[in-house]
């Protein structure tokens, strides 16, 4: 497939404008780590925007950062760390899940797929941190939305609309985010227990006035482990950890600190348990209170590895990519609320199955209208999320 590689935003706009005039759809690529996430794109060429990289403006005192969309997350993390700051939504590196090299994920790809990690239970999703952006719509027009000030909430919030749109509404060229202070200390209480007990402990920890920043359960051959993360100043974390140990004194728990505490949640958010690629992969979002029942109903003898994040609100499930599994999981989302996403599968399954939760008739009509407004000729990543979109 031929590739067009603009060197700046103006060239990207020119390329999209020309494609719209000739009805020649693009597949949008930067780091390329998540090209197999979503339905196969029906396109005639690749729009490679990897050159749109670099820090545009960083104001540490204001906790605001503006970067070009193809800037690698690793580069952003390094710059923020120098000022003892971070991206509060804990961006995930899902590249290895799709056979790509770790460390190549870009901010644009993270925003487009709303790829946030375990800290969502405290800090919210990616869209809660994006305060402005620039993008090229399907007409080749450069659109500026939001601003560089956190309190700027006037007008329609287009930056949030771009989060999780998988590039179907516009080619992101620049993104402005609010950043967060890097905690002085991070610690984790790891409790060995069976799943039902583990989910209960996570829900109890979420209710404690400890401002927990991670709640996950990872199974093992016999008993699994509930991970409860706290962070902040040294003294505060020591007090929080002591409170957790006191609250769960009857459980088999041990504290993790430093690199070990950081690594366990990084691996959970990145889906490291599934990086060997041996199974198809689903992500099931349900209310945390329904997680044990949903897990029991979702698992079968064909279930591969699994784990839970967000206090059970997110279930990673190694299950087959077939119509029966899709129907069963969507019946669970209808019963409990939430949604089921087929995150990884072969190209045939991704072309045939509904990868994302099917929309109601009303919502589908809204999606069609939004697509028509931003990309009337369906030039940008056509079919990536839904057929015909």
Mean pLDDT: 95
Task: Report the biggest beta sheet as strand number plus sense, adding barrel if it closes.
Answer: 5 strands, antiparallel
| Domains (count) | 3
What is the correct CATH architecture of the largest domain? Answer: 2-Layer Sandwich
Strand neighbour order, sheet with most strands: 4-5-9-7-8
- Note the total helix count: 12
List the uncertain runs.
150-154
SSE blueprint and pairings:
Elements: E1 3-4, H1 9-22, E2 26-29, E3 45-48, E4 55-59, E5 64-68, H2 73-82, E6 85-86, H3 107-113, H4 120-123, E7 130-136, E8 142-146, H5 158-162, E9 171-178, E10 180-181, E11 185-193, H6 195-207, E12 214-218, E13 224-232, H7 234-247, E14 252-257, H8 258-270, E15 281-285, H9 291-298, E16 306-309, E17 314-317, H10 323-336, E18 339-344, H11 347-352, H12 361-374
Parallel strand pairs: 1-3, 2-3
Antiparallel strand pairs: 4-5, 5-9, 6-10, 7-8, 7-9, 11-13, 11-14, 12-13, 15-17, 15-18, 16-17
Describe this structure in words.
This protein has 389 residues and is α+β, with helices and mostly antiparallel strands. The protein folds into three domains: 1-182 and 359-389, Uridine Diphospho-n-acetylenolpyruvylglucosamine Reductase, domain 3, CATH 3.30.465.10; 185-270, 2-Layer Sandwich (Alpha-Beta Plaits), CATH 3.30.70; 277-352, Alpha-Beta Plaits, CATH 3.30.70.2740. The protein contains twelve helices and 18 strands. It has a five-stranded antiparallel sheet. The protein has a four-stranded antiparallel sheet with strand order 12-13-11-14, with helices on both faces. Strand 12 and strand 13 (224-232) form a beta hairpin. The radius of gyration is 21 Å and the shape is globular. The protein starts with a strand and ends in a 15-residue tail after the last helix.
